[in-house]
Amino acid sequence: MLRTPFQIVLGTHDTTPVPAAARAHGFTQRFALVQSTHASAVADMVIDSVALLALIRVLDAHCATPGSLFWDRPGRRRQRVELDALAAYYRDTAPENHDPLTAGEWRRGGRLVALLHTETWCNVGGPAPYHDSLTYSFYSATDLSGLLFDGLRRADLAPTSVITTTSAPPRRSRLALKDTLFLTSLAGLSLASLLFLGMQLLDPTSRAETSLDVAGPWIAGPLVLAFVYVTAYLIARRGRHPFTP
Asked: Residues 140-157, buried b or exposed e (16+ Cβ, 10 A)?
């Protein structure tokens, strides 16, 4: 079996694409398995799943119930997959032909305790330490790093490095009110512009050319504001790196 090295990142970077579900549940703790996809023996991308499966098993044991694992496989809709079937697929398929796991969630006593979000940096390059990796980010409200490190040790697996970052994850709640007020104002201005344009075009005493000349700025203004806002929002969401998985 082809093996590739992996690193562990504790915390988030500015470029980390924190999923909306993690924000919604207040999951600020992140344990990221940064798995390299390069093996010198082959030219193709390699998906080494050994460390990932070890982490999934330790979370299943911690929650006393199997987690829900999901795949987004090429040409297919998202589907749920059982751990045994996933392990068999990885065992019986060449690593360079593997499809990566997409997401997962774990519940304990009916309460959501952890989420998995896969970052496919191998598709876009990406910044250090994620460059050309498959990064499996585990999010939780409490620190599960001790539990997960213990699972790696029991599987006789060791990262090449452990990186701790203090960057705070994006907090959507602080921007929610400002975003709502801006979008409400923008919608109101757009509606007023459309009403003004409609009145001008329906006015039999006005020439269409004159109406459009007058209404033009009212139409262009909201469109320009919307473009600027959406562009700024996307840049803020993606952080300093223009391409995030």
From this structure: beeebbebbbebbeeeeb
